[in-house]
Design goal:
By secondary structure, the chain is α/β, with parallel strands linked by helices. It is built from 10 helices and 12 strands. It has helices at residues 5-33, 57-69, 77-84, 106-118, 140-148, 164-170, 173-195, 211-219, 253-261, 263-266; strands at residues 36-37, 39-42, 44-46, 54-56, 73-74, 95-102, 122-126, 152-156, 201-203, 224-226, 233-234, 245-246. It is globular and about 55 Å long.
Length: 278
């Protein structure tokens, strides 16, 4: 066979092109298979810190200003979940999600003004037994008013905020099963009746869950559930146990920055002073 330098270089170029394409596909596949989004979790707001779970309104405003100044976009939880599931192909490069647990009245009296100012979407994980009943909680009318702004959206935080570990110890197997059904399925049904929309997401109370509860939540009709495991929500994790960062009064703006940019998640174990129990 006669040597043809033109053909030789053509073959070499094709080989290089195939290698480059393979590398690019690998990078793209890796990016698609490990999508991450920071999800923040708040509880109460106010002019003063009355307990560790209360964030000063001024501090929350500072955090929202930091996000804005550093090019972050607060996206709806629904968008983030769609992205993690691969149903949504892309989101802003610097995306973050804001959630609030419990349904405390300070969401209406203190947080809402700031949310409206910055036009940011917020998911409220509510346990319905407290709403319009407990003095510390919002009313159903207030919640419906917040949802009409299209900035707030209600999801489930069980029916009355139980400690599943305690319940499992003190109840018989049959009683515990009924309790779990009430907390998961009962809460979903009640919230759908009160809000008029589907409830798809759940926040685990006290961050407590186990393999059986994950299955129970899915059987109850939830598509996704969130913990308070301090890490970014990732597409490689169980969709019924995605991470969130709880933000409390002791956190500085530098702490907040580490949560959002993921550097807290990468800190060596034992050196991360942000770890906490609920």
């Amino acid at each position: 066979m006669q040597y043809n330098p033109t053909n030789f270089f053509r073959v070499g170029a094709m080989v290089r092109l195939v290698v480059i394409l393979a590398v690019l596909m690998g990078v793209l596949w890796g990016a698609a298979s490990d999508r991450k989004v920071p999800v923040l979790c708040y509880h109460r707001f106010g002019t003063e810190v009355v307990d560790s779970m209360t964030i000063k309104s001024a501090a929350f405003t500072e955090q929202m200003e930091w996000l804005k100044a550093n090019g972050y976009t607060v996206i709806p939880l629904d968008t983030a979940v769609g992205y993690l599931q691969g149903k949504i192909k892309s989101i802003p490069a610097k995306s973050v999600v804001i959630t609030v647990d419990d349904g405390h009245k300070s969401v209406y009296s203190d947080m809402a003004t700031i949310v409206k100012k910055y036009r940011i979407p917020v998911t409220l994980f509510i346990y319905p037994s407290a709403i319009s009943n407990a003095k510390y909680a919002m009313t159903w009318d207030q919640i419906r008013e917040l949802e009409t702004t299209k900035l707030f959206h209600v999801e489930s935080h069980t029916y009355w905020h139980p400690n599943f570990n305690h319940e499992k110890k003190k109840l018989s197997s049959e009683e515990y099963a009924k309790s779990v059904d009430k907390q998961l399925g009962g809460a979903k049904k009640k919230l759908e009746e009160k809000t008029g929309h589907e409830i798809k997401y759940l926040a685990w109370v006290f961050g407590i869950y186990d393999d059986t509860l994950l299955v129970d939540a899915k059987k109850s009709g939830y598509t996704t559930a969130f913990t308070i495991d301090r890490k970014h929500a990732s597409s490689t994790d169980n969709m019924m146990a995605l991470g969130r960062y709880m933000v409390i009064s002791k956190h500085t703006i530098k702490d907040f920055e580490r949560m959002v940019n993921g550097s807290e998640e990468k800190m060596p174990q034992g050196k991360n002073n942000l770890k906490m129990t609920y």
